[in-house]
Amino acid sequence: xxxxxxxxxxxxxxxxxxxxxxxIGHREKLGFELKEDGSLVTDxxxxxxxxxxxxxxxxxxxxxxxxxxxxxxxxxxRKTLQGRCxxxxxxxxxxxxxxxFLTWGISIGYLENYRHKHGAVILPDSGEILAxxxxxxxxxxxxxxxxxxxxxxxTVLAPPPDAWSPGGMxxxxxxxxxxxxxxxxxxxxxxxxxxxxxxxxxxxxAQAYIGHMKIWDVAGILPMMERLGIxxxxxxxxxxxxxxxxxxxxxxxKSKEFWGLADTVRIxxxxxxxxxxxxxPVEKT
Length: 285
Description:
Layout: E1 3-4, E2 7-8, H1 9-25, E3 33-34, E4 40-41, H2 43-56, E5 62-65, H3 74-82, E6 84-92, H4 94-98, E7 105-112, E8 115-123, E9 128-133, E10 136-141, E11 155-156, E12 170-172, H5 174-179, E13 188-189, H6 194-202, E14 208-211, H7 215-218, H8 222-228, E15 231-234, E16 265-268, H9 270-279
Parallel strand pairs: 5-6, 12-13, 12-14
Antiparallel strand pairs: 1-2, 3-4, 6-7, 7-8, 8-9, 9-10, 10-11, 14-16, 15-16
C-alpha cells in the first residue's frame, strides 16, 4: 500500500490487526462500565486507544480518540482539525463486543486541513479489513489476525449497485432503533456498530443506513464512501462529506452533542437514497 503524507497503509493495517487480536484475546474475562452518557466502555477500549495514540501521534500530527476526547476544548479542536490529525474509535460497538456479540469493529481515520483523507477499519470476528489506497477502496477477508500484512490478498472494491431493492437490508443505528420507525417492507438490522453497518453498505451486504453517530464512528469510513460514490444526507438537508466544517457535525465543545451529527443521517448510493426518501419521506419536526 502506498504512502501519502502521514498515511502508511501497511502500518495502519498492522495496528488494526494488533488491536483486534488484543480485543479478542481479552474478551472472555471482560467487564464494562457505564459512561456519563450511558454508553459502555471497557478496559480494552482504553488499552487500544493508548496503543494507537503511542503509535500514531507525533509533534505535527494530532490524535483524537473516543475515550480521551472529553479533554478537548475549543482551541484544541480547531488546532487539531486544521492540521494533520488521527481520529480513532478503539472499539466501535462496545456494547455488542462486551456482551459477546460479533458486530463490532475498530476504525482509524486520517484528516488533513479539515478533510477526511484516508481511513481503514477492521471487523475482527469476521476477519474483514477495508482501507483506502490512493483513490481506491481495498478489501480483504483474512484467515487469522496473525497474518503478515505482506501476505494479505487485497481486492479493489467497485461502487455498490445504485438501484433500490425492496428486499435489501437497511442498517439502523442504536438511537434510531429506540426512537425512529421504518414503515418499509425491507428487512432491518441494528448491529450496534456504525463501522460494521457502514462496512456492510460499502460491501453491498446492506443497501442503506439510517442513524446517528459521532465523528470517530465514521472517520475511517467516510473517505471510502466518497471514493465509492455513497451519499450521506442528514434529515435537515445537510450533506455529511469529508469536509469536517460542512455543518454535519456539532463542533461546539459546550454542546451536549459535541462531535455528534446535527441530525439523523441516511446513507446509500444516489438513486437508492432518492428512492428511500420517496417511499419514506423525512419526518419534519
